[in-house]
Specification:
Subcellular location: Cytoplasm
Helix content: 25-40%
Number of domains: 2
CATH architecture of the largest domain: 3-Layer(aba) Sandwich
CATH topology of the largest domain: Rossmann fold
Mean pLDDT: 95
GO molecular function, one term: 16S rRNA (adenine(1518)-N(6)/adenine(1519)-N(6))-dimethyltransferase activity
Number of strands: 9
Catalytic activity: adenosine(1518)/adenosine(1519) in 16S rRNA + 4 S-adenosyl-L-methionine = N(6)-dimethyladenosine(1518)/N(6)-dimethyladenosine(1519) in 16S rRNA + 4 S-adenosyl-L-homocysteine + 4 H(+)
Strand order of the largest sheet: 4-3-2-5-6-9-7
Strand content: 15-25%
Structural class: alpha/beta
Organism: Curvibacter microcysteis
CATH class of the largest domain: Alpha Beta
Order of helices and strands: EHEHEHEHEHEHHEEEHHH
Radius of gyration: 20 Å
Bound molecules: S-adenosylmethionine
Distance between the termini: 58 Å
Keywords: Cytoplasm, Methyltransferase, RNA-binding, rRNA processing, S-adenosyl-L-methionine, Transferase
Low-confidence stretches: none
CATH superfamily of the largest domain: Vaccinia Virus protein VP39
Number of helices: 10
Largest sheet: 7 strands, mixed
């Protein structure tokens, strides 16, 4: 039976064969690799991926799609909201130290998914995600650009990232209203040790009023914490490189 795409699940199914091949090539799956796909949908990526890896774990929220996927003998289907999936437990179940995570993500929850996976970064080998191009622009942005913000700092601290493929709306059925792209995210091997929640709070305060100088926002926050170190607050949040935010969080 034909599946009617559900808007509330962000269902835009890939239909362009060349783009699908391009994404699979960018992922470069190899036999036996432990891989997890988020939101397999109608299996546009799932099928070529599983042909190369042999076995694949997929996470799908839509009950009808999950039922179809369960008929595939090489798939292990987790029928769940991805935000509730414990990726560390998935790696333990598969008895592997690290997972490769891939997916054409539902765009309405792409940022929460990225932050959820950040909590499980220790069991991730790499991530390849299709997202709104505008979100990827923010993820990989450099300081002193309008795209540079909370997402850039929180992710660049922990991952090396690159935009690997542009994907136009016509590549999907139904087409989304925005351009898309594929990002490769590789966890950094020796990240600075610090509590992520502290960095998150600091960065949120810094970017709360991005047009103002930091002395009005972060400066006050640092004063309240009796911070006695050196940090130039005569700048705007977007002028501060990731390494300086990380060093400040470490000094607190
Ligand atoms: C953009 S579609 C991609 C479908 C397919 N991978 C493709 O490329 O054609 C997003 C998929 O994620 C699923 N999905 C939406 N919200 C989800 C959630 N919270 N957890 C897991 N899967 C979800 C949708 O049902 C849909 O299959």
């Amino acid at each position: 039976m034909k599946h009617i795409p559900r808007k509330r699940f962000g269902q835009h199914f890939l239909s362009d064969r060349l783009i699908i091949e391009g994404i699979v090539d960018a992922i470069a799956p190899a036999p036996g690799q432990p891989m997890v796909e988020i939101g397999p949908g109608l299996a546009a990526l799932t099928q070529p991926l599983v042909e190369r890896v042999g076995q694949l774990t997929v996470i799908e929220l839509d009950r009808d799609l999950a039922r179809r996927l369960r008929e595939h003998p090489q798939l292990k289907v987790i029928e769940s909201d991805v935000l509730k999936v414990d990726f560390t437990a998935v790696a333990q179940d598969l008895q592997v130290p690290k997972l490769r995570v891939v997916g054409n993500l539902p765009y309405n929850i792409s940022t929460p998914i990225l932050f959820h996976l950040l909590e499980h970064v220790d069991v991730v080998q790499d991530q390849h995600f299709m997202l709104q191009k505008e979100v990827i622009d923010r993820m990989v942005a450099s300081p002193s650009t309008s795209d540079y913000g909370r997402l850039s700092v929180m992710l660049q601290w922990r991952y090396a990232m690159e935009n690997v493929l542009f994907v136009p709306p016509e590549s999907f059925d139904p087409p989304p209203r925005v351009d898309s792209a594929v990002v490769r995210m590789v966890p950094r091997e020796t990240p600075a040790a610090l509590p992520p929640k502290l960095l998150e709070e600091l960065v949120q305060v810094a970017f709360s009023q991005r047009r103002k100088l930091l002395r009005h926002t972060l400066g006050r926050w640092l004063e309240a914490r009796a911070f006695a170190g050196q940090f130039d607050t005569q700048r705007r949040a977007e002028e501060v490189p990731v390494a300086e935010y990380v060093a400040l969080a470490q000094a607190l």
